[in-house]
Amino acid sequence: MVRSKTSPASLNTLVTLITIALVIAALYFGREVLIPLALAVVFTFLLTPVVSRLERLRLGRIPSALLVLLIALSAIGIVGWLATGELVEITRQLPGYKANIHKKLQSILGQKDGDFNKAASTIEELNQGLTKAPAEPSAAPSRRQAPAKGSSKDPAAGSAERPLIVNVAAPPLTAIQQVKTLLGPLLGPLETAGIVIILALFMLVKRKDLRDRVIRLAGKDRLHNMTKALDDAACRLSRFLLVQLIVNASYGILFGLGLYFLNVPHALLFGVLGGLLRYVPYLGTMIGAAFPVAMAIAIFPGWTQVILVFALFLVLELTIANILEPVLYGAHTGISSLAILVAAVFWAGLWGPVGLILSTPLTLCLLVMGRHVLQLKFLEIALGDEPVLSPEANLYQRLLAMDQEEVGDIAHAYLKEQQLGDLYDTVLIPALGFAEQDRHTDVLDDDKEKFVYNCTRELIEELVEHASTKSILLDATLPVDDPAAQPDFQLSSVSILCLPARDQSDELVARMLTQLLQRAGYRAQFLPINAVDDMLEQVAQQKASIVCVSALPPFATGQARSLCKRLHARYPSLRVVVGLWNYDGGIVKAQERFESVYTDCVATSLADVSKQIGQLTEAILLLEEPAAVVPDRTDAAATRIEGRPA
Fold it and tell me: How far is CA 551 from the centre of its chain?
């Protein structure tokens, strides 16, 4: 009997999924306890910087915590009391706005005989005709006959057919019952608020002790990781909450003042609502602006004030979101926009409105955990805004998707910050390495293989034109009379030939190197893939002084060694450079692979090849015409090959 074996990776995945399901279930069923705890933690992180500053003034830990908490609660209570009074006033005045609202609706819908009202009336008539109940049939005559005159009938029978309904008056409520009825809906929030205040005070006073206990629970062998994680979480969360409070409060104050000067009633209430609703991701600001816009529609006869209120919201939101927040937040939270939206839906589903407000701080804590706990690394990948794919992997992925347009976008975006030589070395060549790995393991089919090579070839030609227009290879900022800024015409006397060792990938890298050499002033050419004998004949016909063998490991290394041996056997005085691109073992291991083969030098990048070719060219020119060569000139040319200014 054969037993199926479960791989450790599958077992770990199953355990992780079960753990996540249990955690989510605990968050949902334990929300009565966890919501006050989470609110207390958020308040603690928000108030800790202020408490710490007061402690440095030698005020004492407990007095500092009490004073800061008292000031915060007083501010919340005053603002809440004033906003509640404004809300009560709105409910009293709301019936007086009915006529103006009706007039606005008529102006929007049009006259009674307008097309819109006619269509609405027609739909309403059809709906009534379809939903009208059929006429009830006439009631059948009752079989029961009226009692004959003089016949006796039990009077109790009539009373049974018509029961007597007696209304019993409820006893009046006592004072305590009236208070319970009035404050009943508020008892739950008040109880939660009391628990949050007590927990926040305890955490502010005992925060160092709590920190040490968390570190001790993690174990002594994880002191470094836990210390780094706690410091990162405290710094990120405290700064984020404090800046968020300042930004939202500023928005509420400016919004309320703007509404006040626009003569919108109850500007204080709308300012407070606008500041509070900004804690709700994305939708909160629009909901906060909808209330004053609706008020302006209700009380003002025209549309001017409505447009001004909306313009006020638009100007404030665009200014704060695009100017103030990026400056104040500085280093971003690290959460992607999609993760913030998904987290808002997730936490709102678990904890309701409180979860919606706490979604960003809680998600930030999860992101920090994923950054410092190896088992939770998937949280950083799922929630973070940093690219999860390297540029070379991203480029190769789009090549596999046969998306030529996005391949060009990735390359051009990289060129905005880096040079062309860097793009070739760090993006294109590694992407071709991925293609070689997949091709030799039969993962890459023929159509995609053809697309990868053709698209890369077209991209190389396009990038050279782009580089010439933007002066990437020869920096246009250098003075015109600087000799290093101009191509050295003596370099063109040295013929350089780039040979592919084996595959199309080797040929494409040879194209890259040839183009960089040509832009630097060298007389360089490359040969397409061909028979080795034909390529050896071309070396003689081109009268090459330097040959660069392009080889993309690991599969082209053997062919490169064989080609170098045949080149040396046929042309003993030929200078041979081997480009073993992105070799895993580094330059030392690459040189060891060609130790027994005659080569002048071995390099692993285009930048290294440029330096070696510059030195070989200088040596050749010194031998041919010693007095006509300035050593620094070839160094500058080699620098230009790399795509950097001399």
Answer: 38
Report whether 576 contacts 596 (CB < 8 A).
Answer: no
Instruction: Give every strand in the sheet of 546-551, ordered side by side.
Output: 523-526, 495-500, 546-551, 575-580, 601-603
Tokens standing for residue 564: 């170098």
Q: How far apart are CA 76 and CA 159, in angstroms?
A: 64
CATH 1.10.1240 intervals, the chain: 391-470
pTM (two decimals): 0.61
Rg, the chain, Cα only: 40
pLDDT in tens, 600-635: 888 888 888 888 888 888 888 777 665 444 444 444
Contact assessment for residue 483 and residue 490, using Cβ atoms and an 8 Å cutoff: no
Structure tokens at 516: 């960089």
Q: Which fold has domain 490-641?
A: Rossmann fold (3.40.50)
Cis preceding linkage at 554, omega within 30: yes
Q: What are the angstrom distances between the C-alpha of 343 and each of 20, 321, 365, 581? A: 15, 20, 12, 44
CA 457/CA 412 separation, integer angstroms = 15
Q: Position 504: which residue type?
A: Q
pLDDT in tens, 377-420: 788 788 877 777 788 888 888 888 888 888 888 888 888 888 88
Q: What is the dihedral of CA 170, 174, 180, 183, to 10 degrees?
A: 100
Which residues pair with residue 526 across a beta bridge?
Answer: 498
CA angle, corner 440, sides to 434 and 446, nearest 5? Answer: 85
Q: How far is CA 267 from the centre of its chain?
A: 35
Please tell me the distance from the alpha carbon of residue 180 to that of residue 174, in angstroms, as a whole number.
10
List the one residue out of 235, 328, 199, 197 whose CA is nearest residue 49: 235
Q: What is the pLDDT of residues 139-186, one digit of tens each?
A: 444 444 455 444 444 554 454 555 656 555 556 656 565 555 655 666
Distances (CA, A) of 18 to 14, 260, 362: 6, 55, 21
Nearby residues of 618 by Cβ (< 8 Å), 6 or more positions away:
629, 631, 634
Q: Where are the CATH 3.40.50.280 domain residues in the chain?
A: 490-641
| CATH domain 391-470 topology | 1.10.1240
Token pair, residue 434, equals: 């991925």
